[in-house]
Amino acid sequence: MRKKIIAVSTIALIILISTVVFAWFISTESIANKFKMGTIKVEVLEPGFEDITDVSTGTYTKNVQVASLGTKRTYVRIRLIPEWSELSLPISNVQLNLNLGDWADGGDGHYYYKYYLTKDQVTSLLLESVTFTSLGPEYDGKTLSIKAVAEGAQITHNAWKDIWGISTLPFPEGVPAP
Fold first, then answer.
1. What is the chain's pLDDT, residue by residue, as a tens digit (178 residues)?
2. Got the DSSP string for 111-163?
3. How far is CA 173 from CA 38, 58, 63, 96, in A?
4. Ranges of each domain in the chain
5. CATH 2.60.40 fits 42-164, yes or no
6. pTM of whole model > 0.85?
């Protein structure tokens, strides 16, 4: 009987030790590492602009600038596309009066802001006004639209090369906005 008790006790002890060792090896603790990606978001601003009716030859204020609403440092470029509501009308009588002090003409139809922007920063004005040099009767009742298409690209990892398909920027890299 004593051998039986020793055998049962030994088996129970082996099971207990095995369970503890097994629990030790399978016991896990997890920790969640969260990586929140930054964002690139730009918005075209036209401060103070209201649609103008009864346009004649002359100059009209039209301010265009770009704001960075994303969290990453961002390069900005913008394209200005003037077009008449009747597409066959030439735009040669429309002069866009640009302020290129902080902007570089990329030669590809885009104007590049010479500095990178951080969250909530705004570029200087690119477009300050529009001048109509002549308006013949063929322009009566027609509307001029100026589309401003802005794009942003993060400054790190030369992302602008892939996004914009260019090999160099038309200004020195890595300069923060004043």
1. 777 888 778 887 788 777 776 666 676 677 888 888 899 999 999 988 788 888 889 999 999 999 999 999 999 999 999 999 999 999 999 999 999 999 999 999 999 999 999 999 999 999 999 999 999 999 999 999 999 999 999 999 999 999 999 999 999 988 887 7
2. EEESSBB-TT-BPPPSEEEEEE----GGGTT--EEEEEEEEEEESGGGHHHHH
3. 20, 38, 26, 27
4. 42-164
5. yes
6. no
Q: How far apart are CA 102 and CA 108, in angstroms?
A: 17
Write the DSSP symbol of residue 37: P
